[in-house]
Amino acid sequence: xxxxxxxxxxxxxxxxxxxxxxxxxxxxxxxxxxxxxxxxxxxxxxxxxxxxxxxxxxxxxxxxxxxxxxxxxxxxxxxxxxxxxxxxxxxxxxxxxxxxxxxxxxxxxxxxxxxxxxxxxxxxxxxxxxxxxxxxxxxxxxxxxxxxxxxxxxxxxxxxxxxxxxxxxxxxxxxxxxxxxxxxxxxxxxxxxxxxxxxxxxxxxxxxxxxxxxxxxxxxxxxxxxxxxxxxxxxxxxxxxxxxxxxxxxxxxxxxxxxxxxxxxxxxxxxxxxxxxxxxxxxxxxxxxxxxxxxxxxxxxxxxxxxxxxxxxxxxxxxxxxxxxxxxxxxxxxxxxxxxxxxxxxxxxxxxxxxxxxxxxxxxxxxxxxxxxxxxxxxxxxxx
Amino acid sequence: xxxxxxxxxxxxxxxxxxxxxxxxxxxxxxxxxxxxxxxxxxxxxxxxxxxxxxxxxxxxxxxxxxxxxxxxxxxxxxxxxxxxxxxxxxxxxxxxxxxxxxxxxxxxxxxxxxxxxxxxxxxxxxxxxxxxxxxxxxxxxxxxxxxxxxxxxxxxxxxxxxxxxxxxxxxxxxxxxxxxxxxxxxxxxxxxxxxxxxxxxxxxxxxxxxxxxxxxxxxxxxxxxxxxxxxxxxxxxxxxxxxxxxxxxxxxxxxxxxxxxxxxxxxxxxxxxxxxxxxxxxxxxxxxxxxxxxxxxxxxxxxxxxxxxxxxxxxxxxxxxxxxxxxxxxxxxxxxxxxxxxxxxxxxxxxxxxxxxxxxxxxxxxxxxxxxxxxxxxxxxxxx
Lengths: 384, 384
Fold this sequence. Notes:
Two copies of one chain form a homodimer.
Chain A: H1 2-19, E1 35-36, E2 42-47, E3 54-58, E4 61-66, E5 68-69, E6 74-78, E7 85-93, E8 96-98, E9 106-109, E10 112-119, E11 136-144, E12 149-157, E13 170-174, H2 183-186, H3 190-199, E14 207-210, H4 242-245, H5 247-257, E15 267-272, H6 274-285, E16 292-296, H7 314-324, E17 328-334, H8 340-352, E18 358-362, H9 368-378
Parallel strand pairs in A: 13-14, 13-15, 15-16, 16-17, 17-18
Antiparallel strand pairs in A: 1-2, 2-6, 3-4, 3-7, 5-6, 7-8, 7-10, 9-10, 11-12, 12-14
């Protein structure tokens, strides 16, 4: 049997050359790239015989590095020892960006696509898919009467949701400018972080709702009737206050369609950058709705003279939120973040109002490394 | 207000350079690539000043084509007029594969990642996201006692499923070698095809279950505890008969967890290539289970002396399936497919048994273009 099977496999592989479009069966030599070595250095390899220069750049090697061509004509570079993290990189071959043909894993960040790899250990073990019960991740559409559109969101329901009768608390998790309802899943590793934290007993089982915070966009590029449009960073409606004003539509949809606890103690809202602003504005405009608020790398960012009602009388709204009470108001920011000063200003405003918050200052800047980290720190504090 | 907003946007964009990793704010000149022109030609553009040669290749330009450098130093090529289709392509810069930095849309096909674009009109309008009610797409895990593993699948529930009481029929849709539970969604445009066919009244609302047919793999690469492993075309367990033997676990999971009609008349199974073989083998081994069978670009592919019980006494199983009856047995294949002769052989076997089938011969080969087409033809025939 085995011999015949081998023949069939070889035959299949051979005729496969013409068989499956896009699939390259012609490789002579298997190249492994990136290779994560036992000491947490990482080796990149590229077969680019005619190239004069091959460079790699990414958050794993921010200064960039030139690969060297070996006797086997393969270009290689080994990084220094890396800390546990999900890293990204691109190759530049004679100045032209190329991706690593031996790494099938890419993530889009706004309009830029990069290769990724994961160095495990420490906090990065939360970002791995592990053999624990997995939640369900659904892409679902809801109607927003306020935005007059049918819109897409991502819903993570924890393992056991479908087969139980228990009601769950909900974390609403909001992306930054240029992101969409996919960002927290793909760049943020939310499903992996939640699966792992819940399985370890570190976070309560909860539903996580990842919305699309661009009021003028119904779904991530490619998933709406706009077609394969180029993703852009700053959309026209970004500071119009519409996302915040229409947020009630999302709460109503989730509470009408999922087995959730419909009470303040079971609602959390958090977001990064623009989504952090959304979270603080929404929680202040719905002052008796959320017991948990997370503001990641953000502050009050809207123009001071904005006419949008959600930004008006903001100090009065914060006072009302303070007086109504809440369990946790969590602010996380990196000390090299370009919004660091803005965040300090916002904390001064809160201090002046005796508005209590927990402050989590880290190193680093406006990065997904920090946002994965903040979610991992924030989620265990919820619904306790 | 507008002036202040503009200042803020500019500030945000400027400091954004250091702000969001991977996001390139430094572009001087906006390059549109690919541009789908009014006459259905497509223009590719690439900024690669130092390159000596830039080539584009893909199913939109199978013979490949060299771009020419204009006075503005941008390389361009315009294709001939293209038929409606979802197309893929890659650039080759001085012989090194590069992807189009101005096109954020990529799809992985086994271990190869390619840029994609869509030329609308005709059948390709079914592949577009349109403003019709959208189904929900969930990535969910189930336990397979027979395979002794917890495994991932994709479930499309049609618009209205969550808010109704109606019970739905189910189409089980299986990928080919090298594919997984994501393939029919990403390369096959299943959600778009089903949304559009259902909205047009051409197909009955149905649940579509896209399984992982690799018995030795629990989920698509990157979504299992194996980590970011390189996807391979021919897995060791491909012809071991395990996927077919364990299929009852999937039916049991779906019928135990979704609002579905649990009857032969409400079950369909179809697949492409390896998945076509799975479909015909499963439907013969569960002879009173499926009223609808779709065999796309496939045949009996397993080694003739395989010891797996699901392949044994196959003629007797087909006779039993014939005698039990069914509503539709649909065979689709392209006349330049490398399995065309194998498919003819299989039809001769069916003919010799007076086993009725519908035969749909097309041009083309073993391609996703055909498989999207076959799904679009097959789905309207189901559950009528």
